[in-house]
Amino acid sequence: MITIYGDASNVNLTAQKRHLRVVEGQTQATPYAGYLDPSLRNADGTFRLPASTDTLPLARSEAAYSYFGGLIPGTVLVKTTGENFTVHNGDTGNAVEPFGLLGQFVGGTLDGVKSTNEISAWFGPDSVYDLLAPAWNDTGLAAAIASATAGKAVKLYGGKDGRLTYLTSPGSSIAVATVVERPSSAVLRIKLLV
To answer: Is-above-0.85 flag for pTM?
Structure first.
């Protein structure tokens, strides 16, 4: 990666690949404009990664997944109050409903938001996306895809670290997406259910 504009631009590392790419979304995919929940900012205004000890706006048992010190596009979002969003906590009941997927890097080295708090939450049932690793939790996914019967989709859920996961035991019981295909360990094509 080559740093071209340094920290003066919202495009800190212009050579970084997007980890969430819309494939089929002409009428299905919508980037919903929203804001980071105020709980994701420190008193000095810097980004704060959701920690395992957080109780508001959602109680967490695991810290959100961190990529270069921030959130990665494709992280499952939950709408809190107003137009604010936070990272899914992997609630095992039906109390926390996923809203969509984070559209840009937030916080850390690759921060595309800076101090504006403006984010996008991609949503739309039947919209299709490519995710680049490590935007999802790969534990058990290859085996689940290999053993899936014809006509039965492999479902993905909001995990405790905020990423999509195949497993429901350490994550939500509300499906967020299904697997369309996994061309390699670095790319996952999904169809949103939210």
So the answer is: yes
